[in-house]
């Protein structure tokens, strides 16, 4: 009976250690708990070009992350990119004339969506669309333009 | 000279064995009762299989984490991206290295001992004695070991991953003096709970069932001689290592 008690004690310790390790990993080493879940709403915006914007890219206002890009797809009629963004419910007073731009963090960093709040007294709600958008700057196109028309503005 | 019969037998034996193994598992799971006696037996096996493997798993995990961090820093330094080291270590650990290496170690540490133990019980007629007493040895001997393997494997994988992350912390923050804040924030933003973490947990559950099923099956079907037990032990390690890697590929290609 005594030996059996020790076995049960040791396996109890093992089970608790294992569960503790799994929980520690989930909370400290993954994005667990950072999902927005139900406490959020979705707004969308159309862009001519989204660059390489990916799902789960951050949506920021003034550099502070307030949501995630949920989906990037192509509108089959207008051939514009339709970006759906899931925004934290705590930020629920974004003006209706908020504008969206796709920027890059750092010179070669990841793309993110930057929102610039306007002054409209009406607020954005779930399913609304942003109308003022600015597309991503694609580096290759910029370089191409400079190579093809060198000094077009100043030297003439 | 090989008779025609021998060839037929050689070709068919893998299929026959797979079938036997499947039937064995059904017979074993049919004995699932959740009675207190069964729980106590399982707990004892969790101690023998899981808790006794803990030290080797933790030591291996720590050094795997250290060497991963070392290699990742060396490779990433060429692109000036050595602060991404925790992301690389974390993703590769959670998705592949944690479950697979733990399962391989588990097959070597616990799978062999299960197969040898049951084989020896057979060689010393303990299994026959149980059958005479109308106790089903499959449910009395094999089932607790199988259950203990399925329970222990995810926990062992968790300990392995935790020690490997600690090893990476020790090397990259302690030795290479990188920034601790960047290390943790890269992990928390780059490693996804649903894909990376849970994918690894599912894998480890499957591997746990696989290794302990093979060990229990080979132990129970071993020839009751010294060399029969030796063959069963060897087959357990060889077959479970191969199957772990095959199943790893299959699961990865389905879930990502």
Task: Provide a descriptive summary of the structure in words.
Chain A is of the alpha/beta class and 156 residues long. In chain A, 24% of the residues lie in helices and 31% in strands. Chain A has two domains: 33 residues; 105 residues, no CATH class. Chain A contains two helices and eight strands. Chain A has an eight-stranded mixed sheet, with no helix packed on it. The longest helix of chain A is centred in the first third of the chain and has 27 residues. Chain A is elongated, with a radius of gyration of 24 Å. The model of chain A has no long low-confidence stretch (mean pLDDT 83). Chain B has one domain. Chain B is 86% helix and 0% strand. Chain B has nine helices and no strands. In chain B, helix 3 packs antiparallel against helix 4, helix 3 runs parallel beside helix 6 and helix 4 packs parallel to helix 8. Chains A and B meet through helix 1 of A and helix 2, helix 6, helix 7 and helix 8 of B.
Short description:
The complex is a heterodimer of chains A (156) and B (256). Chain A has 156 residues and is an alpha/beta fold.
Topology overview:
The complex is a heterodimer of chains A (156) and B (256).
Chain A lengths: L1 H27 L11 E8 L10 E4 L2 E11 L6 E8 L10 E6 L6 E6 L12 E2 L1 E3 L4 H10 L8
Parallel strand pairs in A: 1-7, 2-6, 5-8
Antiparallel strand pairs in A: 1-4, 2-3, 3-4, 5-6
Chain B lengths: L3 H26 L6 H15 L3 H24 L7 H39 L2 H7 L4 H39 L4 H11 L2 H28 L5 H30 L1
Helix pairs in contact in B: 1-6, 2-6, 3-4, 3-6, 4-6, 4-7, 4-8, 4-9, 6-8, 8-9
């Amino acid at each position: 009976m005594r030996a059996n008690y020790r076995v049960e004690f040791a396996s109890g310790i093992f089970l608790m250690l294992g569960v503790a390790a799994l929980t520690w990993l989930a909370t400290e080493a993954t994005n667990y708990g950072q999902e927005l879940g139900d406490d959020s709403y979705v707004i969308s915006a159309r862009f001519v070009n989204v660059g390489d914007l990916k799902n789960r890219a951050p949506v920021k206002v003034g550099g502070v992350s307030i949501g995630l890009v949920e989906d990037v797809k192509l509108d089959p009629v207008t051939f514009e990119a339709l970006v759906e963004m899931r925004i934290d419910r705590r930020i629920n007073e974004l003006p209706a004339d908020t504008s969206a731009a796709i920027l890059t963090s750092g010179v070669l960093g990841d793309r993110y969506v930057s929102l610039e709040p306007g002054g409209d007294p009406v607020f954005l709600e779930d399913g609304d669309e942003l109308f003022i958008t600015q597309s991503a700057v694609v580096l290759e196109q910029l370089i191409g333009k400079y190579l093809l028309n060198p000094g077009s503005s100043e030297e003439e | 000279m090989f008779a025609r019969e021998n060839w037929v037998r050689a070709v068919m034996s893998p299929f026959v064995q797979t079938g036997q193994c499947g039937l064995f598992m059904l017979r074993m799971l049919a004995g699932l009762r959740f009675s207190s006696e069964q729980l106590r037996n399982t707990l004892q096996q969790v101690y023998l299989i899981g808790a006794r493997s803990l030290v080797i798993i933790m030591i291996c995990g720590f050094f795997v984490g250290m060497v991963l961090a070392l290699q990742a820093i060396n490779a990433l330094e060429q692109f000036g991206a050595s602060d991404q080291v925790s992301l690389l270590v974390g993703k590769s650990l959670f998705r592949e290295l944690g479950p697979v290496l733990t399962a391989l170690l588990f097959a070597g540490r616990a799978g062999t001992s299960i197969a040898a133990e049951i084989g020896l019980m057979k060689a010393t007629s303990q299994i026959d004695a149980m059958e005479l007493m109308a106790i089903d040895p499959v449910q009395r001997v094999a089932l607790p070991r199988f259950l203990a393997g399925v329970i222990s494997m995810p926990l062992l994988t968790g300990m392995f991953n935790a020690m490997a992350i600690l090893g990476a912390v020790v090397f990259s923050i302690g030795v290479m003096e990188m920034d601790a804040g960047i290390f943790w924030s890269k992990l928390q933003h780059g490693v996804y709970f649903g894909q990376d973490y849970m994918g690894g947990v599912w894998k480890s559950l499957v591997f746990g069932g696989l290794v302990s099923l093979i060990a229990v099956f080979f132990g129970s079907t071993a020839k009751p001689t010294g060399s029969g037990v030796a063959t069963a032990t060897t087959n357990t390690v060889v077959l479970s290592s191969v199957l772990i890697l095959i199943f790893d590929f299959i699961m990865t290609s389905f879930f990502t």
